[in-house]
Amino acid sequence: MQQGSWWGYGALPVVLSAALAACTSMPAGLSSPATQPPVQAVQQSCHPEPLTGAAALLGAFADITPTQALQAEAAGVRVCWGGGLRTLQAVSEDRDCLVLLQAEFSAQAGLGWPREPRFFKACGKGPYDRQLLQPFTLVWLSGKVTGQAEFAGTPIPVIEIDALYRGSDCLEGDTAPQCVHSYLQPLKKPQ
Questions:
Q1: How far apart are CA 26 and CA 167, in angstroms?
Q2: Are 51 and 43 in contact (CB under 8 A)?
Q3: Averaged over 163-178, what is the pLDDT?
Q4: What is the pLDDT of residues 15-67, one digit of tens each?
Q5: In this structure, what are the phi and psi dihedrals at residue 98, rounded to the nearest 5 degrees?
Q6: CA 149 → CA 30, 52, 75, 154, distances in Å?
């Protein structure tokens, strides 16, 4: 072998290893059930924790603001927004609607509030625990844009909730009920 050639630096064993590995792999489109890991649905989102389960299987999020969601072509688009809770209202025995002031999030600045307030409404199966959802509670919601409503004389988009995450401003380790920070589910009705 010549000194200084690429064969002299161990390339031959690498090439042979790659060729042999190709002989032991499954053809495209086929897989061995024994070697496949169980499928677990996980999706990154605007929530502090990844979505899992059914909510993770619902599709990607559009990067639009509540103002952009007022456009007709935004109907049915899936969004993930966070904000401060302004109102929580039961619209029926098993349905709640929240109005939120949208927060902006960035890796550099963290949580911030836009110069011009942008509100949105999110509705879903309820009721949610009123002790955990008080005015100014920080929440993250994901869902599909379903229409428009009005808040303080201004049109705002409405989304159908598929996941609701409650943030907390409590100190780490505080176990008081109002310090819950996790995904919230509607309360179960007594039987």
A1: 45
A2: yes
A3: 80
A4: 333 333 333 333 333 333 344 333 344 456 676 677 666 666 677 888 899 99
A5: -115, 140
A6: 50, 30, 13, 8
Q: Give the amino acid at 151.
A: F
Give the DSSP H or E segment for 65. none
8 HSE (CA, 13 A, CB side): 5
User: Measured between alpha carbons, how far is residue 101 from residues 32, 112, 173, 187 in Å?
Assistant: 49, 11, 28, 24
Give me the phi and psi of 117, to 5 degrees please: -60, 135
Angle at 165 between CA 180 and CA 129, to 5 degrees: 60
186 backbone dihedrals φ, ψ, rounded to 5°: -60, 150
CA dist 77 and 75 (Å) reads 6
Q: pTM here?
A: 0.70
Cβ neighbours of residue 149 under 8 Å, at least 6 residues apart? Answer: 121, 155, 156, 158
- The tokens for 157 are 């988009």
Non-local CB neighbours of 183 within 8 Å, separated by 6+ positions: 47, 49, 163, 164, 165, 166
pLDDT range class, residue 7, cuts 50, 70, 90: very low
Closest CA to 66 of 163, 158, 165, 164: 158
